[in-house]
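re: ur msg from earlier - yeah i can do the zinc ion complex, just paste it... oh wait u already did. ok heres what im feeding in:
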Amino acid sequence: MESKEIIARLERQNYLMEKRYEILKSMICDIYDEVIPQKKVCPICKSEIRCYIPYGTPKLRYHAQCPVCLGAERERLLARYLELHWENLTAHKISQGEPVKLLHFAPEGAFYQHFKDNKNIDYYPVDFNPDFPYHIVKAVDITDIPYPNDYFDLIICFHVLQNVTDEKKALKEVKRVLGPNGSAIFCDNINQELEVTLEDEKYDTSELREQYYGNGQYVRGYGRDYIERLGSVWGRDSIVKYSVDELDAEEVKKYYLRRGEEICIYKKQIES
Ligand SMILES: [Zn+2]
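and the outut:
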């Protein structure tokens, strides 16, 4: 067979493969439309999706991740909180006609572009690691934040504190850089079966931390006293909890939220 003939045949096969793929794709979409006629709206990226995809280790969770922005249940909880409380969180800034100064530790990919593109937000994504996968404005150690007192209006810090040895120093720093009436939203992995946070200096190897805290990087395993630990520095009365368990069933079902999850919101009072 001539080489030209071989190439023509391969091109034809390729074309047919692409056609088959297109047909298969449209068949899968038809099946989805039949089985799951009602599309869902992801509260983070606002995309219309047919279903959330499985995600998580070691146990895979169903209906966990948005296939467009990759936001998971906890990020959807934060998105709903921000959507419902944005005016309240930023009222002191909106009234002055100024953008909201937002400090975001270890920014989640699902929110990164959304905050960056928002003209009403002056966005400061930061992380301890200078080689963080998303562009950060500065490498920042939460126990020594390189910004002046009262600088930010809003601070978001998810899954950071559980890796920080000097927890109290970190919380004091957050309080220092947060302006009056500003809010800090915190969330870490909490083991609801633990009444008191597990923390012991002798668990000093990644194997022991994995065994006792559930992750080799963590320096403690938070229990149900998480909010009290934040309150020991910020004042318990200045913190509220936004918990999936307190939301109505419709909301939980609509956004595929996960029972047992919660975020803590600290509001810095104007000191008299
Ligand atoms: Zn999404």
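cool cool. The two ends are 91 Å apart (CA to CA). ping me if u need the other ligands too
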